[in-house]
Amino acid sequence: MYVLSRSSIVHLIGTMFLLPIAFAIERKTAPRLSYKVCLKLFVHALYGMSASLNISCVGLNYASATSASAVLNLLPVLTFFLALLLGMESLQLKSFHGIVKVSGIVICAAGVTVLALYQGPELKSIVHHPIFRHPSRVDTHPSRSWILGILLQSLATVMFALWTVFQGPLLEEYPSMLLNTSLQIVFATVQSFFMALVMERDFSRWKLGLDVGLVAIIYCGVLVTALANYLQIWVIGRCGPVFLAMTVPLTLVITIILSLLIGEAVTLGSVISGALMVAGLYNVLWGKRIEQVALCKQGGSGENGSCLDLEEQESGVPVPATRDSIKPVPGSKERTDTSN
């Protein structure tokens, strides 16, 4: 199970890339790092980076990359559900938007059930000569192993959803995003190293060759571990965790295309479950959109500006501004009094 040693190397590359940049940019502006914040960063890195990535990598040994990306489509609904439990979101079952949200959660759950219990026939690739020859995991692993892989991917997704939700409160306590990300990656590097040391005691598996595997490790370390994690934390700080989760369905589409190019097995069950999860996701987002418009229309004059923006986005036609929505320009009253 050499993926654990590769995971520790990936985190090490991410640390070597991002930590010098973070110190160069935020060294003078970052707040003081207390022991309490340091402990929180360690815990968040443990379940959100090192454990979730290692569990996901182990799950890839039993299931395909397409199924893993399909399970990842649960992230928006899980994020919303966790935010609901923590009081960050509301759910009104008697309203239309509440019913739409619940229906989206049910559809996503149906997609996960299909993915875990039904594989279906393997879809033939339109590319007759894949870029990389890759054995079909559908043929090399029995159905029990497939279910185990789906369960591991689901567990990793739950951990990442928790990490996504808790980044908001963490950013309020330690707002330096670059150092926040860098320190979590540093802790994840140490944690992944000890995990690999326990699970993979044969150090011959730690050796890296000059092949496509080395390119993949460098790519994951720089772009996925360093840059992607920083951008995710940046988006969470600006727009919230649910907004970040909106882009997840694109992962399944891109993964299916790349899987066909490299010869990875793509089953009918993965496609059906992915379609159900995407449909459920956008049901939840649609319900959230309706709720935002309703709350905006019920709000006071201070929220009319954002309400006008939402109405313009819904209809595509500029909405005439009301008197309450027009904010006076600073100093305009003084100029008017002077002219009189």
Automatic annotation (TrEMBL):
Q: Which InterPro entries match?
A: EamA_dom, EmrE-like, WAT1-related
The coiled-coil regions, if any, are none
Show where the EamA domain sits.
9-101, 148-284
Q: What is its main location?
A: membrane
Q: How does it sit in the membrane?
A: Multi-pass membrane protein
Q: Which keywords appear in this protein's UniProt record, sorted alphabetically?
A: Membrane, Transmembrane, Transmembrane helix
Q: Record keywords: Membrane included?
A: yes
Membrane spanning stretches: 6-25, 37-62, 68-87, 99-118, 146-166, 210-230, 242-262, 268-285
Q: Does the keyword Manganese apply?
A: no
Compartment(s): Membrane
What's the domain of life for this entry? Eukaryota
Which GO terms label this protein's molecular function in UniProt? transmembrane transporter activity
Q: Where is this region: Disordered?
A: 306-340
Q: Name one GO cellular component term.
A: membrane
The Swiss-Prot or TrEMBL record describes its family as follows: Belongs to the drug/metabolite transporter (DMT) superfamily. Plant drug/metabolite exporter (P-DME) (TC 2.A.7.4) family.
| Identification of the protein by name | WAT1-related protein
Organism, scientific name: Aegilops tauschii subsp. strangulata (Goatgrass)
